[in-house]
Specification:
70% helix, 469 residues, mainly alpha
Length: 469
């Protein structure tokens, strides 16, 4: 059996979750919410492989279901947790079924291969920890420079350069597992803390990505036999991430206004020292009332089926279904790279949101972009039940990419590490089709170039021995 099975511990957890669901304020919605993760578990988590696919779809599951648990907690009906609630129950169930359609598509592909060879521990121990640390520090210094100045190379090269810089995460992941298996976790903890702090100095903070990757690494190491001693780091990482997310969502509007000098843009005019001092000042003023407000803001931010509800009410009543036009545009953008088609129109997610949901949101002229999300766009293109077929096909694409990366990499550790940039593409439920498709193809292209021309050299620099084939 290649995939994880539902054993006695999981069945016990499911029993208590179903008991909670039955007595909750929204029982049927909660039953659907608590059973879906177990289906994703048996469809996506393969033995002796990483849980990246499972976690990616679980993060999407959070965007669908978080308000079920929140409305249960505050004791109100589910529909009253949304601004656009006319079709919210449909949006909820369609989203869960769509997520399972994607998972089934992935499962159809990844069930057909079984990785053999070195385990994560055996592979991690072949790396020279003392060589990895300075190598990662060098890449970490280069990473923000590449991201910040990618536009200087022209719009046609901006996305490839950005995606290439994302392979910093490959080295971070290898460094993490090597550090933990070599019992050198203190230095890695210092590096991680430094990276998280630096990530808070920009308009967009990706601190949660560090927590997610660290969480995956700890699960890989201790997941087979989790006891209290092994579970403690998981709990600490999880609580720390949630607390930082709540505080960040509360201070973010004021902090971003300071970073941009009050301008409606995403460009910061502050130095890192100024940014950190201001952030420390804002965090110092956070009290219990602010935490309560931050929880509500975080729930509203994570939940992303409101636009789907509005779209179901708007399409086809006001605007007709597009019969594949959104998918055609997403694929067409891939076939027309900006490097060779400089006049290609830019993506304005807010424009599509205004058009298909009837909800007026701020757009590019206000320095923001608000998308409908790929699930909603599949509904607009192919209605029900057609959207589930195209989501299944999308799952096949994800499965093909995952299978290729894992089977073409030297071992399971390197394959998992190199898949992490794709993991960041997959986990965002709110991402638009034209961005997901383009980013996925660009990731695959950069992966192949890196694997063919850079990987062997990199491994020769950071392993204990020269033979890295």
């Amino acid at each position: 059996m290649q995939f994880k099975s539902i054993g006695v511990p999981q069945k016990t957890i499911l029993f208590f979750l179903l008991l909670y669901a039955v007595i909750s304020k929204n029982p049927m919605l909660t039953i659907a919410a608590v059973t879906t993760p177990f289906l994703l578990y048996i469809l996506l988590w393969k033995k002796n492989e990483s849980p990246l696919l499972f976690f990616a779809l679980m993060l999407q599951w959070t965007s669908i279901t978080i308000k079920v648990f929140y409305t249960n907690f505050v004791g109100i009906d589910f529909v009253y947790g949304f601004d656009h609630y006319y079709e919210i129950n449909k949006a909820y169930y369609y989203s869960l079924l769509g997520l399972l359609s994607v998972a089934i598509g992935i499962h159809f592909i990844i069930r057909k291969f079984d990785l053999k060879g070195q385990s994560f521990e055996e592979s991690a121990l072949t790396f020279n920890h003392r060589k990895l640390v300075p190598f990662y520090i060098g890449v970490a210094v280069l990473y923000p420079i590449l991201n910040q100045y990618a536009y200087m190379f022209g719009s046609g090269l901006q996305q490839p350069i950005t995606k290439l810089s994302d392979f910093k995460w490959m080295i971070f992941f290898i460094l993490m597992l090597s550090s933990l298996y070599h019992k050198q976790w203190k230095l890695f903890a210092i590096i991680s803390a430094f990276e998280i702090v630096l990530s808070l100095t920009g308009f967009f903070s990706n601190f949660k990505d560090y927590f997610l990757v660290i969480f995956v690494g700890i699960v890989l190491i201790y997941g087979k036999n989790i006891k209290f001693k092994q579970a403690f780091p998981l709990v600490i990482v999880g609580i720390s991430c949630i607390y930082m997310l709540i505080v960040w969502q509360y201070v973010k509007p004021t902090y971003r206004q300071y970073l941009t000098g009050g301008e409606q843009t995403q460009n910061t005019i502050r130095t890192r020292e100024e940014s950190l001092n201001k952030l420390a000042e804002l965090v110092d003023g956070v009290d219990q009332t602010a935490i309560n407000d931050g929880i509500k803001i975080t729930v509203d931010r994570l939940s992303y089926i409101d636009f789907f509800s509005a779209t179901i009410d708007y399409v086809p009543r006001v605007v007709p279904h597009t019969n594949g036009a959104l998918w055609e545009d997403a694929i067409g953008r891939v076939l027309k790279p900006r490097l060779f088609f400089p006049n290609k129109t830019s993506i304005d997610d807010s424009e599509a949101t205004n058009k298909y949901s009837g909800v007026m949101v701020a757009g590019a002229d206000k320095g923001t972009s608000i998308s409908l999300g790929y699930m909603t766009e599949n509904y607009i293109d192919f209605r029900i039940p057609g959207m589930f077929i195209t989501l299944f096909a999308y799952g096949l694409l994800i499965g093909i990419i995952y299978k290729y990366v894992m089977t073409s990499s030297p071992n399971v550790l390197v394959g998992t590490a190199m898949f992490i940039p794709m993991f960041f593409i997959l986990y965002a439920f709110e991402s638009a089709l034209n961005k997901i498709v383009g980013a996925s193809i660009m990731y695959l292209l950069i992966y192949e170039l890196f694997r063919r021309y850079c990987l062997k050299w990199f491994l020769s620099q950071v392993k204990h021995y020269e033979n890295v084939d």
